[in-house]
Amino acid sequence: MISRFRGRVSSAHLIALLALFVALGSGAYAANKVGTKQIKNKAVTTQKLKGAAVTTGKIANGAVVESKLHNNAVTSFKLANGAVTAEKLAEYTNSGLVKLSIGETKVLLTKGPFTFTAKCEDGGAGVVNASMTVKNTGGTAGLFESDYESNYNDPVLDPGEELNAFYSVSQSVPYWFGEYYNLFSATSDDGSTSITGSGNIGVKVLGADCVYQLFTQGTGTTSEAREAKASRALCIPSRLRAARRGPHGCPRRCP
């Protein structure tokens, strides 16, 4: 029987079997030897990935930054419940465009011990003065530096002290300023409030004597967030009182 088998085996059979063993062996070798170092940059595209192949457990912390996200990539449907909290929203503030008339002042932001105030004043002879100041309303000294003040060697902001956060504008003609002189940073003595910011300031534009816009980012609690938290705290025991019940015996809603 063996002799009959030998008679039917040709050199082509042997070559085919050899090729099969080599192919199987190289596949196993590739499975063990091909790692991230052997893959060229951009070789693995989204089209080559199976659905749900990349899970959160496979992504390193800090790997997905803002620059790697497409516009509108993160929608409300992709956010877990409770992922966006008031504290996280408070890290970023935008005053929007604030218009003031001569003689008016307005607090645009209070964060930690720092209060930012817009002031619009008459400079005489048709000149309008617009300024944005920061004041330390806390009980201990903090750190504040603005490009306009150039106080890099003297950044201490004592309690009650007030400095310019923005470039101060004094003009009799329309003027709008938003360059690097409006950059600033502020840090409380314990580090619980640490923010950077910038914005725009101008006079005699958009039909107003003075116009401002303030942007900040960083840690710290705004006055609005503190008030909302205090309101919620006061509301907890009130839910237990029948006297606080609204129409039809239903408890009043707390903010």
Provide structural commentary.
This protein is α+β, with helices and mostly antiparallel strands. Among the domains are: 93-221; 223-255. The protein contains 4 helices and 13 strands. Strands 1, 2, 6, 7, 10, 11, 12 and 13 form an 8-stranded antiparallel sheet that branches. A hairpin with a 6-residue loop joins strand 11 and strand 12 (194-205). The protein is elongated. Mean pLDDT is 81; it is low at 232-255.
> Main β-sheet: number of strands, strand sense, barrel status?
8 strands, antiparallel
Q: Roughly how many Å is the radius of gyration? A: 33 Å
Mean pLDDT: 81
Note poorly predicted spans. Answer: 232-255
Cα end-to-end separation: 92 Å
What share of the residues does DSSP label as strand, in percent? 25-35%
Classification by helices and strands: alpha+beta
Number of separate helices = 4
Return the string of H and E elements: HHHEEEEEEEEEEEEEH
Q: Shape from CA axes?
A: elongated
> How many beta strands in the DSSP annotation?
13
Query: What helical percentage do the residues reach?
Result: 10-25%
